[in-house]
Amino acid sequence: LLTLAIETSCDDTCVAILEKHGPAARLLHDDKATSDSRKFRGIEPTVAVTGHTSKLAGLVDKALRMLPKVESNGSAGEGVLFLGSDGLRRKPDFISVTGGPGMTSALAVGLNTAKGLAVAWQVPLVIVHHMKAHALTPRLVHATGLPWPGESNQQQQQEKRKKEAAAHPAFPFLTLLVSGGHTQLVLSRSVTSHTMLAEAKNVAIGDMLDKCARAILPDDMLDQANSVMYAAELEPFAFPELQQQQQQQQGQANKNPYNYTPPRTRQDEIRPYSSPTHGWYLTPSLANRRDMAFDFSGLGGQVQAIARRSDSPPDTPPPDLTERRELAHHAMRLAFEHLASRVLLALDAMRAEKKRVPKTLVVSGGVAANGFLMHVLESMLKVRGYGNVEIVRPPAELCTDNAAMIAWAGMEMFESGELGEAGGEALEWLPRAKWPMEEEKSG
Ligand code: ATP
Ligand code: FE
Q1: Are 221 and 233 in contact (CB under 8 A)?
Q2: Whole-model pTM?
Q3: Is the ipTM beyond the 0.95 threshold?
């Protein structure tokens, strides 16, 4: 099976081609263009839509040239595309596209192009839920690690693949989705069945960290950032020694690179952090409460107020570099411990109800690219008796938005006999800015 996938829910214009054969998959193409909203210091919707509108057709055109060649010199029969001077190529069996959640006008650009391709090529259109695609990404990584039929198996390749294939999240698994627009803890039972266990109702963790980073990072760093994902700069900023160590040791494992001691009990977890030298403190989110929910608004507000001196006397000097690093470190730590605390509550509840505890915790979405987050999660699960739960995350480039994950989710849905979220009504699908994961199909 062959699919061409389009993703335009936010500010990345993404196109991918994925082929699947039995359990194995291979990514024939995975490309993106990101619009530049840096002068707005955050994603600007009109810039995103302009970016999609100007870039998507070109990206699709480029992708078509990566479709598998049809070797025969016969005529363009069924399942074959004729590409001008480029000869005959296999036509995708279906098109996958993000139907939501995301920015309405941004989603519309991808949807309209996908609908056009599906109609022109007379193939099905599969509407994909963006967050489900984030959740299923480790299964894509696993499938692309399996040997492709007939491919020569060089040893190095095999080694790499063995490692990737090991991390195969079989259903059911827990998924922690941490991105720019969502913070969700989900129990994934199948390709389409995902039960929400906890969710952030207000600001998402990625958004909160981006805002904190804008307040914490020195101006020159903000000016030099490669993208508006400012949160990605927080980790190297907070742990400069770690950067150096990693460069020097080149992969040698340091057991506790972040010098982090996980809270051993729930009581430890809900203690505020009090800065020994600067007098401010940070309160953990939903401290003393066991609600199955995430809340990053309080922590985000405190961090920004400290960095900007909003609640300090007017003559207070701005924070120096050491204080900024300390703030970045503990803002991340408290945010990540809050995430872990809800994972632990969910696991404890399953254990108490004598339900099977899932073997895997998938962590996906842009914030999953953060090494400190993975370290905090691993350490906390271990000291609290869940060391056997394997934490799996996709490689960093598949954590943030991409079309490969949309192709994979489309593929899993198509194979399971579901024509995506819209059933046979995909051509009428409208962008859905907000789209809960659990809702029954509306097609
Ligand atoms: P959603 O998936 O909820 O629709 P989105 O698609 O905009 O939102 P993603 O692309 O999945 O979100 O993730 C982007 C977010 O991840 C941004 O907030 C970005 O700053 C954050 N992010 C990326 N890399 C890192 C990192 N290394 N550490 C922390 N945060 C990061
Ligand atoms: Fe995303």
Answers
A1: yes
A2: 0.91
A3: yes
